[in-house]
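Incident log, structure service

09:12 report received: a user says their structure output differs between two submissions of the same chain.
09:20 pulled the input from the user's history:
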Amino acid sequence: MEKAEARGLLERARDAFDAEEWRRCAETYEQVLAHFPDEKAAGAWWYDAALAYKFLRDWPKAYALGREAAARAPRGEGDPAFWNLGVAATVLREWEVARDAWEGFGVPVPQGEGPIDVDGAFGMACVRLETDGGQEVVWARRLCPTRAQVVSVPFTGGRRFGEVVVHDGEPKGERVVDGQRIAVFDELVLFEPSPLPTLVVTVHAAEAADVHALVGLFVEEGYGAEPKSSFVLHCGCCSEGTVEYEGDGVHAGEQEIVLASPPEEAGRILDVWSGQAGGGRSWSALQPVS
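09:34 re-ran on a clean worker, output below:
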């Protein structure tokens, strides 16, 4: 391939990138890289091709081209080639490469074998899940730079409390709670499903504190509980912006609570709850959602 032909292909690859025609973009870059893998500008070509495959969720290709991009990037300077390689390596469970990628980006992680689980070190995040009903932003506990475990009980179908997801590194919105700003990341892939089913129950609570007590009992057992009144619907534009929460939507009276636990455990905990506080608490119509 002559360099003049390569320049034309690079222009077409960049046009495809701008048009979000990811496969055409990646394959065109690969044509050039097959002949000019080590040109001075080749690191950027490897990176853009790997990024296009990431957008396609073609993780083996994103991984293979991402390794080439990272090999040409400066270490310890926050170069995104390392971040994208860390994501692809995590999805493919290539833990040694993932650890090296995070270190190359400049994020220290524990050495060892197997998944990188640094529970608490990366804090909380919100993740925008793909659901049967569209999308839902849930709270999640970050386990590593790109994996997080869902700690909300999703209201829309197809998703579960306790799932582990791989999320993107670029925030798409934020949530503000008590003055603290929490980034919202888009889900890339479901990494580990959760065995816990989603249930719904109707409860009567004399006071809002009774609802908080019920949620607390489920959390103490390692399960999840969310009042349906806490669910807020946002348009796509607002969801990707800044959303400030004032109050938690919890109230007294009859209401539905969404639960994540085995049904027999849910019944047991509900019985404990309703037997406390000397009356004013009751429950009925416990049934599965998913």
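09:41 both user submissions now match this output. Likely a transient worker issue. Closing.
09:42 reviewer note: Residues 3-18 form the longest helix (16 residues). The chain has nine helices and ten strands.
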